[in-house]
Amino acid sequence: MHGEAHHDQATREAELMIRTGMARVYFWGALELAFLIGLVLAPLHIFVKLFALVAFTASISTISLIETAWGQVAASKAQLAAARAHHDAEAGRREAHVDVAAIERDLADLAAMQPCPEAEALAAKIRAQVLGASPP
Predict the structure, then answer these.
(1) Which three-class secondary structure state does DSSP give residue 12?
(2) Cβ(105)–Cβ(136) below 8 Å
């Protein structure tokens, strides 16, 4: 999968990971807040008792390991998407037969010039190199 379809798929996956990550942050934050409030308010004291259970603590540890692995998946997918994007950009540059060094030299020359017909001609040449057309 390349191009626009690949970008759309990578975007959907990234958005899913962001949404699920934020949901986990809110959930765990709410649970921790309920525990802290339960230390002083009797109606929420059940959360203090819940945190005291070994089974609950073991479950939280297991969930933390799963979330760490999910984070690794997210990071790996981001790295893979960046590598694919770089590969596609390089392939596009090679296929376009663009001489980047020549364009950079011309841009430096153009930046050093005062407005004049020669500068306009050089700008047209750069435009043609970038767009792949022949200069007027």
Answers:
(1) helix
(2) no
Does residue 82 carry a pLDDT above 70?
yes
How far is residue 134's CA from residue 21's CA, in Å, rounded to a whole number? 50
Distance between alpha carbon 24 and the CA centroid of its chain, in Å?
19
Closest residue by Cα to residue 100 from 63, 126, 120: 126
- How far apart (Å, rounded) are the C-alpha atoms in residues 85 and 79? 10
Q: At what angle do helices 54-96 and 45-52 cross, to 10 degrees?
A: 80
Q: Rounding to the nearest 10 degrees, give the CA dihedral for residues 63, 64, 67, 71.
A: -170
pTM to 2 decimal places: 0.49
What dihedral do alpha carbons 112, 114, 118, 123 form, nearest 10°?
A: 60
